[in-house]
Structures are given as C-alpha cells and as structure tokens.
Amino acid sequence: MVRAIYKGGIMNNFNGLNNQDDNDRTRAFTLQKKERRADSVSWIVGALLLFFINLMSLGRITIVGQFIDDVFFNLPFGWFKYFLYLLFFMVDFAIYFGIKFKPKKRFLAMVIITWISMCWIISSILFIVAYNVKTEDFKVNAIWSSTILKDSISSYFENWTQKSLWGENSGTIWVANPETYFNLWAGGGLIGTILAGFSAYTSIYFGLVIALFFFVLDMIWIFTGDAFFFLKPKSKRTGKRLRILSLKNNKNSSYSPKVKKQRNNRGIFSLINLDDDDGFEERNILASMKESDITIELPSYNRNSDRNIYEEVNTDFYNDDFSNINLENYNPNQDYKNEFMNHQEQGLKKITDFNLDKVREEAKYRAESFVREEPVYTSRREKDYDFDFPMPIESKYGQVSTEQAREQLAKETNITPFGANGKTQELVKSKTKKEKVEETPEGQITLDYFINETKKEKEQVKKQFEEFNDYTSPMQENLARNILYSSSGYQSRNNGKQQMEVNTNKAVEKQQFVNDAYQLPSIEILTQKGNNSVQQEEVRKAAEEKAQRINETFKQFGVHASVTNMNIGPTVIKFEIQPEPGTKVNSITSLENDLKLALATQNVIMESPIPGKQAVGIEIPNDKPEIVPMRTVIEEQPITKMGSKLYFAIGKTVTGDMLFGELDKMPHLLVAGSTGSGKSVMINGIISSILMKAKPHEVKFLMIDPKKVELSVYSSIPHLLAPVISDMSVANSALKKVINEMERRYALFTTNGVKNIDGFNSRQASSETKLPYYVVIIDELADLMMTSNKKDVEDSIMRLTQLSRAAGIHLIVATQRPSTDVITGVIKSNIPVRIAFSVTSSIDSRTILDSSGAERLIGKGDLLYTLPGSASLVRAQGAYISDDEIEALVRHCSTQQQQIFDSEFLKIEEDTNTINMGAGSDPMFNEIKDYVISKQKASTSLIQRQFAIGYNRAAKIVDELELMGIIGPQNGSKPREVYIKAEDIY
C-alpha cells in the first residue's frame, strides 16, 4: 500500500510588509509516497469499541448508553456534544481507512480554546433569552445579580436532571424517552454555564460582549499566531500567520517581487499539481513534520510501481562480456578490431559452389536443437577471401563504433527528470552542433570525396559476395523445413490447437478491490408517488362508461358479445369481450373503426384472442394516466430474486402486475423508440435498479454516451470500469477491450474446469478473486454507427452478443432511430429480448419487434416487451424515476467509495480504422471516396468510367474503400452498400 502524507498548520514570519519570499515561509502541506505496514489489530478493535459506544450513547440505547450520554457528553458540553460525537465518528472511520492524525500541542490548544469559547458564547446568549422569555426551565431573573453564578448552575443542574436518566420521564431500561434526546436549555453545557455565570457579574449583556471579545482574540491567535498581533507595532509583529504554499513552490527560490495579480492567483488548490514522479527526501519530510501543527497520513490505492525511466546497465554491458556463440558469422579466433584497423585490399577470389550435403546436415542439426530449446552451435562458413570485416553496428545512434555508442548512452542515462547533472549542456551542444562543410567549385571533386567513394564501392562489392555466400534458395528452405517438421513434429502457428493454447495462456487472474464497508442505498432514497383514491375512483367510473358504450355498439351492429371484465392499468384500460356461442371473432374485430368513433379515440388495439382466455381484448388509453413510481415496483419484487444483482424493474402491466427483467437470463437487451417516448427513463430505471442491489465489486458498468448528456449524471459512481465515453472515435476500442476481457474469462473457465461465471465464482474463497458482472450500455447506437466504423462496431457487438453470456458480460443497446441500417439483422438475431416504445410507423415497429403494434402506443412510458424465450408481447407502463432521485442515488454511491477504474480501459486509444483517419495509397483515393459517398454507389466499372482509370487501379481503390469500412462487400449481382451517408460527412 502507498500512503500520502500531508502536513498543515503553518505560518510565516510577518513583519507587516508585503513579503513574498519563499525562504521566509514554512511548508504548509508536503507530500510523500512511501510504503507503510497495515494497522495493528489493537487499533481495529479499539475503533470497533469506540464505534459501538458512540452509537449507543448517541442513540441512548439501553441504560448504559443513557448514562454515558448524560454524564460524559450532555452534562459538560450541552449542544456541543453532537460535534464531539461527529469527531469520534470521524476518528473511528479514519482508523478503518488507515488515516492517522498526529497533532501537536499547539494545534490541540487552538481547538480546545475555540471549543470553550463557543460554549461560552452560546450559554451567554441563552442567559439573555431566558431573561426575556421568563421560562421555568432555566431561570435568569435579573440582568445583574450577586448570586447569578450560583443560581445559573443550580438551574442548569435542575434542568439537566429532568432531561436525564434520573428524571421522571426518562423512559425504560432499553429505550429512552424521546423528550430526553435534546435539551433546549443545555446550551454550552456546564462549561459554558460556569463561564457565562462569571462574566454575568458585569451583567448578562456585557458578559456576552466579553465572550465575543475572547473569541475574537482566539481567532486572531489562530490566523496570526499572536492574540495581540494588531496591538503591537509593525516592527514587533513576529507571529506566524497561516499561509498555505502550493507544492510547486516547495523548492526555495530567491526573492523577487511580484505584482498583486499574480500573487492572488496562487491558492491552495495548486497543491494537486504535483507529478507522480516528484517526491521528497526523508529529511525534508521530517523537517516538515516539525514545522507543521498536524500531520495527516492518508492511504492511496495506487500501485507502488518502479518509476525509473532508464534501466540500470550491468557492468558486463560495457566489458562486452556476453556470449556470441549464437551469432551466425562469429569466429572466436578472429581479431576483428585489428583487421578492421589494419586491413589491406586483398582482391576478390572465385566463388565456389555450395555443398548441399553440408547444408542439409546444418539444417537438421538446427531443427533438432530448436525443438530441444538448446543453443545452436554452427561453424562459420568458409569465405572465399582471406579477410573478413565486421559489419557496422546498426543502432538508434546510427552506424557508430561501440565506444561512441557507449558515450552517447552514458550521456542520456545521466539525464534525470529533476534537472541537468552536468552533461545535459554537453548533450544539447552535441545535438545542435552543425558540421561545417567547405564549398567545392562545380565540376571539381576533392581528394577526400574520391577516397570515400572508392571505399564505398569496395564495401558494396564485398557485401554482394557476402550476401551470395549467405543466400539460401527456396529449395534449401523447404528441405530444412521438412527436416524440422518431420524430426520434431512441430506444428504451424496457424494450427487450431496452437491457437487454443494461446487462449489458455490468457488465463490471468486479477484481484479487485472489495470495500466491505460499502452500504447499499436505502429504498427511502426513492419517493412514493401515485394517484390518490379519488383519482382512482374517477378512472373506474370512466371505464364503466366506456364499457357501456362498447356494449351499445355491439347491439347496434347485431354482434352478440359483451364486456365481461375490465383491467384498469396505469395508462391503458383493457376490456375483455366474451362472444356468445356462434358469434364469429371477425365480426368483433371488424368493428375497430366503429369502436374508435364510439369511444372518441384513435388508439384502440384489439387482441384476438387474449392468450390463455376465450375472450377478445380491447385496449384503449386511460383518460387520466397514472405514474408508476420506481419505488412501487422495486418494493414488490419476488423474495426469490432478492439476491440477483441484475434483476431490474421494468414497470406495471395492463393487468396491474409488476413487470421485471433479469439481464443475466436475457442475456442482452435492445431498447428502441422515438424521441420523448420514455427510452432514456427506462435506461435510467435499469441502471438505478442495479445500483440499488449491487456493490461496485459485483457489477461494473461501461457507458457509451454519444449525446454526452444522458449518462453523464453517473460519471461519479464507483461502479464504472472507465469514465463515461462520449468520444465515438474510442468507443469501438472500448468494445474491443471488453472482448479481450471476455476471452480472458473463458480462458479462466477452461483452466478451472467450469462453464460460466457462476461456477467460477462459486469456487472462489475470496471476494477479491471473484469476477464481477459487466454491463455495457450504449445509449444511442445510431450515433455510434455514424461517427465510427460501422462494420467494426457491428462485428464487436456481434462477438459480444454471441459469446459473452457465460462470461457475465451483458449489453444494453438503445436507439431512437429504429431503421434497418442501425438495427441490422446481425444485431437483431443476437438480441432476442427487446423493449419498444412509441414509434412513428409500423415499419419501425417491425424492425424492433418483428411485428406491428408499437406505432399505436400512446407514448410517455407506454411500451411493448418481448418475454425471453417467447414471441408474445406484454404491454406495460414503464417505471418512472425522477432526476432528483437519480442524483440522490448517485450521491449516495459516490460517497460510499472512491472510483477505481480498470487500468486496461484507461489505455483506450482512438480507432485508426475510421473514415477520418488514414487514406489510401492512391493519389485519387480521397477524390473517389468523396464521389462514392455523395452518389451512394460504388463499383469498379463506375469508377473506371467516371475517372478514366484502368481496371486494376479501380479494383484496388474499391478494395481499400471496403477495408476502411466505407463500402460493404460484394453481394452477388446487387450493388455494394455504402455505409457512410452523405449527411454524416457534410
């Protein structure tokens, strides 16, 4: 664990001058990252005892808690006992979280005197109030009295006794009387009463003035270091006033005057500008602790990693003490340095043919050594010339000698992030140094140029002979490969078994942070709203009148049927029509338009027959729709589903039953509907339902919000894998990170011999090694398809929806544009469970549900829901949760735990395979791309005719357009589909 140490309570020598010199200041806050051991058991046990005693005393639970509250808190401190309770709770939780306080005596003296001064002021005010009110609970009979101290203390004890454990109405031995929880006349307690009684000898009004005077002196002492600071001459004002320095000013600098505007911009919040690599030496830490009045040690959940930018180089690196036996052309008996420095031109010799038998033996020897993972020892090939020069060293410094490379490396490794060490200037000069080149007249060459060119020609000739000697023909490669495979049974990397082995290697277990102190939100956060009994009675009477109109319509047209039952839902009334024997169902359904006229509404939906009943259903809107509060639905969830973390509320059906969904059984959900139909409220309801049931280590969210406003309210909850993604250029990369997590989980399942996440978690003894559920929420799929690579996004969604169920990863996809280019066939086939809100046409309804009906919904939360594993539709009114409720829920979750993002999701990079990044290698690529997007047509022949280019060139450009996701693949005789629309670009 890493801890950060802040030190505060600090002052500066102030002589009445506008002194801004950092040398005259003491450090206000400093920071160090260092390891420390965990808290001992005695601290934890003590914190638990303090917590329970504090809780019993504050709640006055049992006679023990009443005694502690009355004697140790209420009697001496009065109203200020609640501040003491708060202080004890803060200390208690500080022990839990590893926070340690080390106050100095001076700081404690400031706190105690300030506390006493406030008690004195409150009691003095109560003296004046009691005198003017003439109350019997606390008696102050005169402005001045010689016995006021005695009378006030006596009156205080009498009032305290009546409200305490020893009073007449103190309550039972287990529960205290509610009247004893707060004593109005306790004021500043016995401490404040005694001080106010002494000061009241000057009169109760002047006593308040004295109390305020001492309080002001106390504040001057705190903020200047001297209570009589302003009463002294400027030359003798040597107190320490409070001034907090930012960490960037930790290093002392020489004094330089600054203008007032710059000085005002320096504040306490610049403290957080410290880099992670910055730190302080131990002696600086100890010196700062001596100067500070209080030291607070805070824990951090950051991993303690090594932050050395350059790795230390072993001494063997500089001594060339490394093995060269595996270098193909290395000869240990050859002196390369002398040959390179003293070589002479040796001429060229005749090229000899290879010995194929020797090559075959070498290949077989290498193959067997490779399989056994042994070093390969091969003899150096015989050269056809008597000398052999070493090849130049290729490195990031260019073709330089080893000595020069070492010098360059020494200069770079001696540079630190904390400043230059003497060699920085030398390196800068060497980098910026320009070589002087003497001008040579045209048509004339120098002697140096001639010698260098001659050397280059000789080196090129020698290099050609070396490449010829090292050349291996394809036949030799095949021969070596056959020997290698036949002798060792080595399999290609593209083999399926090898791929499975790689996936198994991904079985890396990760430990997550588990906060046992996390408290789930209470149901009281959600409000209880709904129609009252009067409104419900009005709705029932209106439904009976409509049932009578339906019966009258049937009589007018000679249809032998009548209303036998009606179900009053939140927004829809459903009438059950029972036809008499011999009456055709078509005779009832054919009267749909006549029923609309009789009921004076356009929204009439007929269901023939009602599933499970021998009746025809007629659904019409309710005149006074009822809001379905989220709390009402959650309170009626089944007991058997209380432990399900992904069980969420949907709404209330027409028959009055509560409708729920279980995301891990779906396993993915599609939510679609027009603007204002209730789609976003449903997404908020699903998220809120999960937050009410799951802790951060049980369920993780990945939210993609193209609109940047819908899901931003959840940006502070600790359940997030990464910050809410609003940049669509990185959205697809985030989905690929989820796919990598899915593959890692399947590798873990294979290693542990389980089938799904439930089986894996059941075998884990610790919660830290259990896998959390992942819920990926895409708020607007249409925007994601427009701004990102449509093909890649569709492929990522397809992979997740096909394979992620057993891994505990679930998708919730929402869109307000239910067209076939957004909700494609691939997405629909892998997301069978869907929720449809009101849409504009039956085509959109079929796109979502594969059936019509959504176009006749009345909006405002009215929905159709496809049950998992069933083709039937359920009509319901979606549960409503207000913005205030969401904010309260998010506030509760964010205060319970700090956000800890997944490190893998913080490394998301922008997808390079988009239309806005990169371009084809052909100069006409961009022009042809714009033409294809504007015409929404693409073919090789069209590009040939339009731009007068050859077939091969046009076909290559078409392939590049398909590779970049601009157009689709060939579809038989049909033209290629253009994914990018003109309005998306222009």
Overview of this protein structure:
With 986 residues, this protein is an alpha+beta fold. The protein has 5 domains: 248 residues, no CATH class; 149 residues, no CATH class; 89 residues, Threonyl-tRNA Synthetase, Chain A, domain 2, CATH 3.30.980; 257 residues, Rossmann fold (3-Layer(aba) Sandwich); 61 residues, Arc Repressor Mutant, subunit A. The chain contains 33 helices and 19 strands. Strand 11 and strand 12 form a beta hairpin. The N terminus is likely disordered.
What is the compact description of this entry?
The protein has 986 residues and is α+β, with helices and mostly antiparallel strands. The N terminus is likely disordered.
| The CATH C-level class name of the largest domain | Alpha Beta
The number of helical segments is: 33
Please describe the biggest sheet, giving its number of strands, its sense, and whether it closes into a barrel.
9 strands, mixed
The CATH topology name of the largest domain reads Rossmann fold
Q: What class, by secondary structure content?
A: alpha+beta
Number of domains: 5
Under the CATH scheme, the architecture of the largest domain is: 3-Layer(aba) Sandwich
User: For this structure, what is the CATH homologous superfamily of the largest domain?
Assistant: P-loop containing nucleotide triphosphate hydrolases
- Order of the strands making up the biggest sheet: 12-11-19-18-17-13-16-15-14
Q: What would the average pLDDT be, to the nearest integer?
A: 74
Indicate the radius of gyration in whole angstroms.
41 Å
Sheet-strand content, in percent, reads 5-15%
Beta strand count: 19
